[in-house]
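Supplementary Note 3. Input sequence used for the single-chain structure prediction.
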Amino acid sequence: MTKRMHLGVVLVNGPTQHIVGEWSLPRQITGHDWRSPAFWEDIARTLERGKFDMVFLGDTMAANDNYAGSPDAAIKYSLQFPAHDPMPLLPYMAAVTSRIGLVATASTTYTHPYTTARTFATLANLTSGRVGWNAVASSHRAESENFGRDSVMPSAERYDRADEYVEVCKKLWESWDRGAMVLDKEERIWGDPTKIRPINHEGRFFKSKGPLNVSPAPEGSPVIAGAGQSDRGLEFCARHSEVVFAIQFTGDAMRRQREKFREKLVAQGRDPNSVSILWGVLPIIGETSEAAHAKEQMIFNSVPAEGGLAFMSAHFGIDGSIFELDDPLESAGTDTGSRGLLDTLAKNYGRAVTVGEAGKLYGCGISPHVVGTAEQVADQLEHLYDEAGGDGFLLMTHYLPGSLHEFVELVIPVLQDRGRFRQEYKGSTLREHLSDD
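The predicted structure, written as discrete structure tokens, is reproduced below.
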């Protein structure tokens, strides 16, 4: 039997998603205000109509200032700025849907786990088990300074803190036993005190007495998602996550990262088939192949080189302003990981590229493009899915909400006809969607 892929969409609560200058493209956010509930409700309805597993909401908590030591470029080009809090969107999206999973990002670096455990348990109850938490360890200096720190916490300490943070949340979610809610009206007994207990956690980073004062989620706890790319980030995901978002640019690279991650799952004593890996892709659909590639070229032409370079600087922790746009990329001196990513982005040139060209490429979306007619996009997704051996994809967008309408109306039926995607939801919770192969 052919295994079906899982699909989600990754978004941020702002005017620009994954392409620099996206906010100004002709069809971006037409007929809507991205700050209004109606915009996000439309997206949620569209994705549920397409039987998507989830909408995955990322977050950033600062205007990045790596480029020239200033947030000016982030503000000038709307480099995921502004970025509103994703959490308040979940109840709005949940209210107009009944099946699609709703995942939001919350950092483990600047808050106490009791707050996060309480928030997500409440949301899990409101959504009847459809909510997920993308647990991240924040690494941007500007975010750190916004929370009163003079420097970024070292990586090892940041992930040690994140590990304990998630463990405290799990303990709090498990502080209620089954049958804790008695609801005996005749005896006027609401709950059984012997089945709700403190956790009395005292660790290196956190202290929490418990119990959680929120009733248990339908499945005991919300789904935990992760997006680690580094070795330590993958280890964190292997310990805690049920679904992982990752970016690689070829099927072979996806396969190799998947194998590496599965080894880490085994090292943690977990079934390597118990965690879904979803790869980031950016679909660009046209009535003809030529039209789709023309659309891709239009996107490339619209990206300001400085904006792309500033976006790249934000993600790689470099200051791209010290280079001339015509300098060869080799002069940038980026670290090994980011150089590999940039080399992959530039491979279509077949020649050495300049810093400015690399910035424009990066500004076109930090994931592989799948470009063509609906059938050709479906072909490419199937090929990547089979070659990589993962579980599916998180789609990135180039204009909202139209590119999602296009995908649902044109590509989803092709995948369904080929038996590569579900016709209907079998379950009602996010965890059930992820286990529906």
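The chain has two domains: 6-147+221-289+367-434, 304-363. The CA atoms of residues 139 and 155 lie 8 Å apart.
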